Every structure is written in C-alpha cells, then in structure tokens.
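Forwarding these from the shared drive since the link keeps breaking.
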Amino acid sequence: MAIAVSNSPGNNPTGNPFVDSLIWGSSWSGGTITYSFDPGYYGDSAFSLAMKSAVRAAFDIIETIIPLNFSEQGFLTGGGAFINDVDITYALVSQNYLGGPGSVGFHQVPGDSSLASDGNQAIFGLFGYDSIIYNPEGLQKGGAGFSVILHEILHGLGLAHPHDTGGGSSIFPGVFSSTGDYGYQGQNQGIFTIMSYNEGYAQAIPVTTYTYGDVATPMALDIAALQAIYGTASNATGNNVYSLPGYNGAGTHWSSIWDTGGNDTIYAGGVQRNTVINLNDADLSGSDAGGSPIYAAGIQGGFTIANSVVIENAVGGTMSDTIIGNEVGNWLDGRSGNDIIYSGSGNDQIIGGDGNDTLSGDNGSDIVSGGNGVDNIIAYAGDGNDNINGGGGYDWLRFTGNTSINLDLSNKGQQNTGYGFDTIRSIEHVSGSDANDQITGSKVANILNGRKGSDTLDGQEGDDTLNGGRHSDILIGGRGRDTINGGNGADIIEGGKGLDFMNGGNGPDTFVFTTMRDSTNSTIYSDVIGDFRSGEDKIDLSAIDASEILPGDDAFIFRGQGPITTSQEGEISYLKIDAAGTANDRTYVFIDSDADKAREMVIELTGLHDLTANDFIL
C-alpha cells in the first residue's frame, strides 16, 4: 500500500498558473497503489467486465507517465472483520446518490477520510452506473465513460479542476465558469486538460456523442501536474509512429503523447482531409500551454505533444496539410495536396510532394524538395546551408529579411546566396529580399521579383517576367519575349533580344538598347514601351554604332517626325498613329543605320508622344 501525504503546497507550488491550478495539494508517497472493485457491498451494483477493463486501462496509461504502480486486489470480507486492505475502493452508485441526473462520477483525494464506516481506510471512487455513458460503447477510448473514469482517477491521485479552488489549487487565468468558459488563453478544455468540464476540443470541434470524440489520456497540462507531484516515467523509447485518425467513430479520441526516446513520427498517410500537424511540444505558457492540436479537419480526435517530448517527423495526408517542425532535425513530408510546411531551427528535410506547396526552411541546413506542382519555397536570412529542389512544375523561391542575395538559377552547384552556401535546382521563380539583390535567371521562363532594395535582375534566356519593386533597379530581359516592370525609382531597363514589353513605372527610367537586334524592323512585331513619359524617361541608344558606313562609333541624329534620308549618319525619326475612338494610339520610333531610307529597328511607344532629342541618349 501507498501512504497518502498532505503536501499543503499553497496556491503556487510550481509557479506556473496552469500547472498549479491542477494540483490539489495532497498526493501518495509513491510505490504501489492498490485498488479493488466493490461487488455491491457498499454500492448498488457490481462492476461489469467493461467497466473494470476501463479502470484498468486508465491505470495502465498513467503508469506510462509517472513512476507509480497500480495493483488490483480482490475485495474480501469475512469472519465479522473487514479485511479489504487497499488504498482505493471503486463502487457503483446511482446518479441520484451522486447529486442527480448528469452526476456521473466522484473521487476522494489522497488523505481524505474513507466514506466507509466499518473500518475500511480506503478512499472511494464512485461512478453513476445508471448513466448511458457507462454502456460498453461509452467505455471505449474516446467515449465519455472512459474519459470520466480517467478524470476521477486523476482526482484520486491529487489533481484538481482548472475552474475551482479544490484543495490548495488556484484557477486557470480568466476562467470564471465551469463550462463554456475557456479562459484568457483558451486552455480550459479537455484537449489540454482532462480535468476540464469542457469536453474534447470544445472550442473548435465540440463533442457530439458519448461514444467518441472525448479525451482518452491525461493531456499535456495534466501530465505536467502529475509529473510535478510524482516525477516522470520512461515511455515509448523506440521509434514510434502515431497515426492520426481520419474518421469519426468508435475509438476516435484525443490523446497527449508522452514519448521519451527514439525517432518518432506523426503519420497522416491516407487521411483524406486537410490536416494540421505541429511538432512543437506544450510549452506550459500562453495559448500554447497545453500544446498545439494535431488533427484532421472535422475529426473529433488527434494529439497534442506533452512538454519536453520530441517528435522528429511528420507525414501528411492526401489533401492540403499544414505541417510545422520543431527545433530538432525533422523529416516533413506533405505528400499529396497543396501543403504548407514550416520547419524549425534544426537541419530539416522538407518534401512538398504533389500539389502546389509552400515550404519554409527557417534556420538550419535544410534539404527542401518541392515535388510536383507550383511550389513556394521560403528562405530566411541566416537559415543555414540549404539544398533546395523545386521538382516538377514552376516553383517559387522567396527570400525574407534584410540580407542581400546573390542568386544564379543556372548554377546547379553550391553558391553563396548571402543566406548560406546553398544548392538550388529546379527553381523557376524568385522573390528577392528587402535589401539590394542580384538575381540571375536560367534558360526557362522565369519570374524575378526584386521587391525592396535596389536590385539587379537578369532574366537570361526564356520568356521572363521581371518586376523591379520599390527602388531604382537594373532589369535585363536577355533572350526571349520578356515582360519588364520597373516599379518605383529610376530604373534601367534593357529588354535584350526578343520582342519585349517594358514598363518603367514611377520615376525617371532609362530604356537601354545595345544592338540593332534588340528589336525588329516591323511595326507589328517590335519591342513595346508601355508607359513612356516624354521629358522624364529616356531611350538609350548610345551603345549602338549609329552608322554601318562611317568609321568609328557614331551617334544617331534625331530627325523628329521627318522621313529617314539617305544620309550616311545613323538617323532616328518617329511616327504618331492616332487610332481615334480607341485606346490603340501609339508612337513608332524608327532607327536607321545604313543610309538606305529603310529602318533597321522599330520601338513602339504606347500612346501619342511629341518626342525631342532630349528623350534619347544618342
């Protein structure tokens, strides 16, 4: 037998308001606690096999959490002397005896005087046998009967309610009512403490039946309180897989994981609902005090992770999952669906799988694989040396923070991006940081966004889209049909070879042409400047030798709206096309370099412009 000890800890034995609210103030001295089932000697009925099994299962669970043993003893009387020498006696009584309909359980706490008057020193646990919750289906894990039995047993070990001041306990912050009141941080519900009267994940997925959806283990705050009283037990030290329930039905329940070793996994493979998997343990403070619920959408069951427990891996289901890593090296696999995956500070492996995923590496040297689909991969300053593979589809790499990046998408080896020595493959699109970035594209069609800072974006080959952002940028399209938007600032925009569409945006912009092959001689197929502002923007032709006839590097002559002549000097003229009644007005700039009256290059300006030589750098 164990000895009941009155600790009288006051209102804050640990200093943690959540843990202290669950500590009654008396406990057992340790060792082995004995219990027996009343055959009707004290109560109104003998225990059914199902009820006995539920009590035994509850004790088995508790033994995995704290270093106590529980031993069932036979219930014996005889010879006129009481010899039922156990620590706890369990008896069945009516709900009326317990206080009326809906009163389904009661348990004395360690140190209470026994309810018996015949010399029995055991404390009592009583259950309302005539309640429907003690039907066999309610006594399964997830059923209300099993949850009540476990709740009452924890009273018998010295736990209190979060909503009252039983023993020397305090009350959860902001809780003023026993039901429907979750407190300031939302912790007064079964998913965080089984001692709450708000069943299951009451705030998000309320329990709707007595047969499933309830709590089936001490939850994270209960575990913390029990271990503050009794210490910790080693449990589940191997490589364990915790499978997330994907349906509502018998056996669906909430549990808190107490796991003290191994390489472990939360697994949602085959679950055909969106899931949330957060590998962070309960930190015992704020809104995460009792941990983060791990569950599939609409399913009345799942997990939390108890304080100090480390779960290393997460595998998502077939739909869109949200997966959050922790501080150790995680394997995070989204599988199918449009997943959002955030790793923690460890050296993680992140796999998006099929679908359009958002993958965030955070700190640590991570391996990030997008898989199929259009993926978003997010990089942070100082996040380690990462290996990033976008996989199939057109994938994004997005940088955050104020560190400049230097990234070449055509470089398949390790490169110093400014965010680490990273290896980047199969990434098509990049969004820069808040600093001054240099981003170079590849042979495929890239989208390069500079965002903040004075950036240099070079599309290289492919039909690229370059967006400068807030400051003065250098934007080079390269080969291909490129779309270039300067944004704010005084931008330098070079379309390069191919038919390009260019917008300078706000600020005095310069549109650079370096060869006569940067556009064509056709008014139908030529480079287009969409927002040219005469007197503010400039067209820079200074890199082109204006005359193919004269020696040296010659400058162009501006002819205005006059025709091109046979002068051996290179000439520029323009023609306005007023498409009355439409939005198709345009101005063509004609460039000639060989004295044959025929233009060699055309640049189209959207709208009607009265150009002068000052609009050009000749």
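-- next protein --
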Amino acid sequence: MPNSIFKKQLSPIKPGDPIDYKDVELLKKFITERGKILPRRMTGLTSKQQRDLTLAVKRARIVALLPFVNPEG
C-alpha cells in the first residue's frame, strides 16, 4: 500500500525498556488529543510493548495522571 493513511513512527521505546505509568510525558506520545490510545500500526511498538503501554495508560488514568477524555480535543 504505497498511499497508506498511517505513517509508521520510529518507537521512542527500545525493546526491554520498562514502560512506567508515572512517565506521563512518554505516555502522552502514544495517545491522541482526544485521549485515545494509538494503535500498534501507528506507534511502531511490538505487541508486548503495546500491551504494556495500554496497561500503563489505563493505570495512569485511574490515578488521575492522564485524563480519560480530553474535552478540548
């Protein structure tokens, strides 16, 4: 697909690096302006990293480090 809608990014997370729910600046790179978690095809993460990222974002939302939705977006 030469005219793909999704452009793959180079992941800022190296394989083996932990994804921490307290690292809000890193997590913000993987959510949209509306607060949705970006899919793996856009983030360029491995499947394990994507699962860890999803868990970290959900934990950060529970402890109010990230919003569940962003009404300004």
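Residues 15-72 form a domain with the 30s Ribosomal Protein S18 fold (CATH 4.10.640.10). Helices lie at 24-28, 40-43, 47-62.

- D.
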